[in-house]
Amino acid sequence: MMNKTFMSFIVFVAGLLVFHNVVFPIFTPKEPGWILNRYVYYLAICAFLIIANIALRLKPPISLNALVVWMMGWYFYKYILYPPIPWTLFITYMMLWSIGTFLYISQDAETFREFRKPIVKTIVGDYKIARIVVFIALPCLVGWGTYQAIFPTFQEPVELRTVHPAPPATTKVHGKSYTLETARNPFRIDEQDNYKDSFPFLDVDKHEYMKNVTEGGTVFFENCHFCHGDQLNGLGMFSHVFNPTPANFIDPGTIAMLRESFLFWRVSKGGPGLPNESTPWSSAMPPWEEHLTTEEMWKVILFEYWYTGWHPRTFDTEESYVGQWEKEGKPAGAH
Amino acid sequence: MLGKQKRKYGALSFAMIMAFAIYSLSGFASDAFAKEAFAGQAFAEDAFAKEVHAQEAAEGEGEPEIEWSQDVFYKDWEGNPLKGPVSGPPAPDLDESDYNTYEFAPSRMILWIANQQHLYFGSFVLAVPIFCMIIEFVGIRTRESDPIMSEKYDRLAHDLMKVSLTAYSWTAILGGILLFTFITLYPGFFKYMAGIFRPVMHIYALMFLAESGVLYVYYYGWDKMKDDMFLKWIHCSLSVLLNLIGTVLMYLANSWATFMQAPGGIDEQGRFLGNIWHAIHSTLWNPVGVHRILGNIVFGGGIVGAYAAYHYLTAKTEEERAHYDWVCYVAMFIAIFGLIPLPFAGYWLMKEVYAFRQQMGITLMGGIMAWLFIIQAVMIGLLFFGANSYLHNGMSRVKGSHRYMKYAKYMILLLIICFTMWMTPHTIVMTPAELKAMGGAQHPIVGHFGVMSAKNTAVNLMITCTVLCFLLYQRSNKKINVPWATIGNCWIAAIFVGAAVNIIFLGVYGYFLPANQRVGLSVPQVTTTLTTLFAGTAINISMFKDSESYGEIQWGTQSKVGTYAIFLMAISFTWLMGLMGYIRSAVRLFWHVTEVVRDNSVDAYTLTIGEAGKMLTFNTLFVWTQFVVVFWIASLTAKKVKAEAPEGVPVPAQQQQ
Fold first, then answer.
1. Which residues on chain B are in Cβ contact (under 8 Å) with A245?
2. Helix, strand, or coil here: B235?
3. DSSP characters over B40-73
4. Of A127, A262, B375, B588, whose CB has the highest number of CB atoms within 10 Å?
5. Which one of B393, B412, B450 has the shortest CB-CB distance to A253?
């Protein structure tokens, strides 16, 4: 039993070492390759561990299984997930993975007892060598941890930034006051002068609409693409010197989540116009109202949505609700 | 001939009834769907206002006697603000003299603690009668078929009510403390609120009186009304009445909180416009009410579960262990039953918040409160972990469960993957170096998990997984014998696989849709989840007909880990309730009443996440200390009678089909 457990442990450690040092570099060449490579590699290593255990008729105890599961989670978040995730997220994911491993070992009284067995034996006395190793290693680990914790380092501070600060109720641009709740892009109008909020609004046949989009695009490439990039992905030529980096409009979490009036407020007021919760130093964007006309700003916003294929956030309005009822002739007695 | 004639008339009258029903259906539907249920009244008021104005203009009296003003929230059919006669003074412009403080703590904190403690106890005493109603009803229904179980159910309901009785007085005392805190520390603001809600406050007090009356009759009449079937039904009806009054009480109190967050029935200056129903029935009133009812059930389940879990762990006899193990099961069953629809009620509430003020929604979900929602995600995930852990451990003590236990690890894996998605924040805390390494504020892969499409998918899959776990638990000791067993199993499998595919498809599809349509996708996702719940359970239970048992549940053998999971859930419920209450209330930022009464006290600041966390933890610990005291007081009256062991090991009705 012990031998088989030991064999299984060796298979895991040796397999991981070989895979990591020999196979991993093949799957991840220096030139960034196809991102799925990493996942294929990870599946291969998992398959190897399962097949090797079955082929050698090893039946590792649950404590070793738990260790393997936990380690494989760590390996995934550390090396497979790419580009690397921030430390805070890594901790969060590992915390979840640890809870998952605990749920796995404690799914019933039987597995939990089995898991505890080697720990109890180490403490109580059956595994003498293990006990000596553990009781020597533990103080060393604690000492090393303490050293790590108190040794002065010069890391940059982490930052908790508000991505979407709450907009004010109204904003004043070029002397005109806009209620952000109701302000709408004047160029997103159809032939009947209705604000167009149906999807998709990518109707290239509309000559007037495309003219506005093109003008917005011109303004964008004259002013904005240096930071936001010519693909609107936030990777413009100056983007790397900014913290935070300029917004990536392709991302489903940016303009796709917002109303056009929100963008209008952000574009016109820029970084200096942000509320307290987003300051200090949370956006280098200039207040564009000092450089662009109101029309130009609305057109740029039109272009940004057109180019990315996103649609601004809209809400079902009371008017459209009532309008629908009026069309159906209900409620009869209301008017 | 005559028969035919008769049938014809019968058909005719049936057709007429149907025609009338169809005719009225549209009316009912229109009533039900009308967002502005008081539009007719609104028009009448508006017309009346115009008439009065016209009359006054014609008479040339100059200043009108009644001043009319526009409502801040209510609108008529055309979208114009509703008008009402000004019936109260404008909102006060509070200054330092309108607030009182103590040296030892900021007024805001004192009020927070007073409020939260009252709310916790209020929730508990509202939840327990719901439990008792259900348990007593089940007891009555099983009286014929299983007198032993019926007696156990009845005893359990009675025991719970005893605890509730002590908690009830405690709640009233805490309510008094809260009231005094308001009056003494925030007199200016309280005066304004009392001016608007004066009649509601009186009705509230009277309802409290009614609640007490019914409660005492219900509790003290238990033994007298126990044996006679007619009286027993009357007694059970009293619990319905008790719950009705309790719900009204809660809704009345809710109206004050929802008015503060999203006011209605007043004009921009805060002047009352004469219609108290408008002030009560503001836009968040209904979603907050529904959310709280469900939350109370879950919270109550958690407390009763923890109470039973404690007794289970400290039980001296086998009978006691079996009894409390079973109580744990009943409490957890009710809690999970409330937990499943709870997120959907939360969505509704958030939707209404967004609809009321976009800024408020953004502050909550994307702005300074967003990180509190991440913490909320952790707590909710813990609840699902706890529930599944309890079910897995519970399943393992049932003979025959080995057939299903092997799937537990895959369910855990699914939960972890979903939880990873559910917990990935949209705004990641990181250093500038990490930001550069990642290539932007959002990660190209896990960044997609930061938005609602992914999170809805994750939570629906987690709920579906928990439902599956529950179905396996139900059938773990059953050997299915119905001839259509294979077909039934295929159906169950198809429902769950189909549901998972549909939920994931809708989640991915959401990325290709504009936001307003994407939000709508949560409806079919929820429908899918609920379908698995109802259809899956229905098919599962139907398959138990003529089933053989591998052996009855070994009550009293629940593992310790499973029992500790109950404590985890109870504490999570408590902490989560405090957290969400804080978020809902704190989103007003520096307003007492949003955009009407400004908070000009020195305490008008928003806490940091760490400070808020400390306060929430304090509130949780404080309330649990009180619960321990209340349970101890309730136990003082218990007769020291040795628990009577029923013949055989008791099995709850759910397990006996």
1. 435-436, 439-441
2. helix
3. HHHHHHHHHHHHHHHHHHHHT-SS-SS-EEEEEE
4. A262
5. B450
Largest CA distance in chain B: 94
Residue of chain B with shortest Cα separation from A104: B409
Q: How far is A219 from chain B (nearest CA, A)?
A: 24
Describe chain B by its helix, strand, coil percentages, rounded to 5: 70, 5, 25
Nearest to A196, CA basis, from A209, A205, A210: A209
The reply to whether residue B434 touches residue A87, judged by beta carbons under 8 angstroms, is yes
Using a pLDDT cut of 90, give the percent of chain B over it: 41
Contacts of B402 in chain A (CB under 8 A): none
Work out the average pLDDT over B621-650: 72
The Cα–Cα gap between A111 and B8 comes to 71
Is B433–A156 a contact, with Cβ atoms under 8 angstroms apart?
Answer: yes
Q: How many CA atoms lie within 13 A of A7 on its CB side?
A: 13
3-state helix, strand, coil split of chain A in percent (to 5) is 60, 5, 40
Question: What are the CA-CA distances from residue B115 to residues B248, B278, B298, B598, B648 (Å)?
Answer: 19, 24, 20, 20, 47
B379-392: average pLDDT: 88
Distance from CA of B323 to the nearest CA of A (A): 20
pLDDT given at position A257: 80
* pLDDT higher than 80, residue B654: no
- Closest CB to A83 among B39, B444, B595: B444
Structure tokens at A98: 């640890």
Q: What is the pLDDT of residue B294?
A: 93
pLDDT in tens, A285-334: 999 999 999 999 999 999 998 898 888 877 655 444 333 333 443 333 33
Whether the predicted pLDDT of B200 surpasses 60: yes
Beta strands B478-479 and B81-85, pairing class: unpaired
Across the interface, of B357, B363, B451, the residue whose CB is closest to A257 is B451
Smallest Cβ–Cβ distance between A112 and the set B363, B451, B561 belongs to B561
Alpha-carbon torsion A82, A88, A89, A92, what sign? positive
| HSE-up (13 A, CA, CB side) for residue B364 | 26
pLDDT for the residue numbered B437: 81
Query: Which candidate in B24, B36, B352, B358 is best for mutational testing of the A interface (most A CBs within 10 A)?
Result: B358
Strand partners for A173? A176
Give the Cα separation of B544 and A217 in Å (integer).
66
Residue B30, Cβ density class (10 Å: 0-12 exposed, 13-18 middle, ≥19 buried): middle
Give residues with Cβ within 8 angstroms of B106, minimum separation 6: B602, B603
Cα–Cα separations (whole angstroms), residue B422 to B92, B162, B374, B380: 43, 40, 9, 10
Instruction: Return the amino acid letter for B322.
Output: A
Q: Which position has the higher pLDDT, A40 or B516?
A: A40
- State whether B77 and A335 contact (CB < 8 Å): yes
| pLDDT greater than 90 at residue B558 | no
ipTM over 0.85: no
B75-93 core/surface letters (b: 16 or more CB in 10 A; e: else): bbbeeebbbbbbbbebbbe
- Mutation pick from A69, A78, A107 vs chain B, by most beta carbons of B within 10 Å, is A107
Measure B132 CA to nearest chain A CA, in Å.
31
* Phi, psi for B549 (deg, rounded to 5): -105, 135
Nearest to B516 among A103, A277, A314 (CB): A314
> Which residues of chain A register pLDDT less than 50?
200, 204, 318-335
Per-residue pLDDT of B12-60, as tens digits, reads 666 767 666 665 555 554 444 444 445 555 556 666 666 666 666 666 5
CA proximity to A12, closest of A86, A64, A77: A64
Q: Is B414 on the interface with A (CB under 8 A)?
A: no
pLDDT tens digits along B137-154:
988 888 888 888 888 888
